[in-house]
Amino acid sequence: MRSLSDRAPHRRAHVAFSAWTLGLALAFTTHESARAQGSNGNDQTTSPRWRVVGGGPASQGGVFCPQILVSPAGVPHVAYQDFTSNFHQLAVRRLVGNEWVRLTTAGGSSEGDAWYNRMGFQRNGALVVASRDYGLHGAMGVRRCAGPDQPWELVGGVPASLGGAHHTDVLVVGDGTIAAAFQDSTTDVSGRATVVEFDGNAWRVLGRPGLSIGFSQYQSLALARDGSILCAFTDNGLGGKATVLRWTGAANGWEPLGQPGFTPDQPNNLQLCVAPDGTPHVVYYVWGSRIVVRRFDGTGWPTLGPPVDGADVPTVETEGWRQWLSLDFDPQGRAWVAYQAANLGRKAVVKRWDRSLHQWETIGAPGFTPAAADYLSMDLDPDGRPYVAFRDALTMRALVMTWQ
């Protein structure tokens, strides 16, 4: 379901950690005043507003790539690259009562720096996380934890990709099968999109390696209403435009939903999500122009209303931060979009599609986060309550906020 730039994350970014930790106490004190405006889930104020979840940061220290996913039981989980570990390994915390606690300390969550950190839950409650793992020479490691205090295991015992993997995503199919997508450094044209599946014994490629014509970015997986796997990506061989493919099985392979390269523009941070009625949707930035949501109507991909936001809101990201965005649906089938607004100091904005008014409505105040909300992600719980996770620019720690 989320992504980094096509370049390898800059290793010098780690140097910044030692610099900002010197002022962490002061920054955190400043952060407390902002938090007082949006306390935790136990706040008794009746007026809905954005509030910090768990009484404070979800991480003990600095992070990269925080991602949030709510379990089917309604428990938020946050995965991130943990600056307090020796090699910036993967850490996962879950909300227990009003406190963020480690999912487990048993077993290795990753060998080295963990990037992207997309998650999925199996029916038995096991958590699956896919990361670009620098301890695996940049290959994709897919790890599984059966539950609280259970050990991490590397699915298949080997990396899920043969070589370097960027823009990793993971999907748990209805029967518990794990699928993963990534930008594949081993294809004939380096960087084409590949999807793999774990068959219970080993990783195997679905179809062929390299589904895109050229260099691809922003691989995003979703489950169609009929249980088939959908994969979205941008394709440099089609001018950087977006394509969505559906896996029809070994006999017929992958087929496009609509025209390959269906977007008139060049998407950035493309995300794919399927509405409760089974309609696939995508959301993406067009740098310096707009944020767009499109839906598949059976033949094409018309926009869902006007742009979510307009000119100058999205801006080019840097190695120091990543301008991510998220798309999800509530039980009523309404689309929700979370993003950073450059004209609000890169703070977060959440909007919801109003079908009756045919427009995007802002939920709460625009720019509701205490500071810039880098590496932002959003997930809705089974009741439709949004949780937004991000790296808080004041403390560089993971912070989660919810509308309540």
Overall shape? globular
What structural category characterises the helix and strand content? mainly beta
**What's the mean pLDDT score?**
88
Strand content: 35-45%
Q: Any idea what the CATH architecture is?
A: 6 Propeller
Number of strands: 27
CATH overall fold name = Neuraminidase
Our count of helices gives 2
Strand order of the largest sheet: 1-27-26-25
Name the helix and strand elements from N-terminus to C-terminus, one letter apiece: HHEEEEEEEEEEEEEEEEEEEEEEEEEEE
Please indicate the count of domains. 1
Which class in CATH terms?
A: Mainly Beta
The unreliable regions are 1-44
Q: What is the helix fraction of residues, given as a range?
A: under 10%
Structure, described:
By secondary structure, the protein is mostly beta strands. The chain has one domain (11-403): 6 Propeller (Neuraminidase), CATH 2.120.10. It contains two helices and 27 strands. The strands form seven sheets. It has a four-stranded antiparallel β-sheet, with no helix packed on it. A four-stranded antiparallel β-sheet has the order 2-3-4-5, with no helix packed on it. A hairpin with a 4-residue loop joins strand 23 and strand 24. 49% of the residues are buried. Mean pLDDT is 88; it is low at 1-44.
Provide a concise account of the structure shown.
With 404 residues, the chain is mostly beta strands. The chain has helices at 15-21, 24-35, and strands at 50-52, 63-70, 76-82, 90-96, 99-102, 114-121, 127-133, 139-145, 152-154, 165-172, 178-184, 192-198, 203-205, 216-223, 229-235, 241-247, 254-256, 268-274, 280-286, 290-295, 326-329, 335-341, 347-354, 359-362, 373-380, 386-392, 398-403.
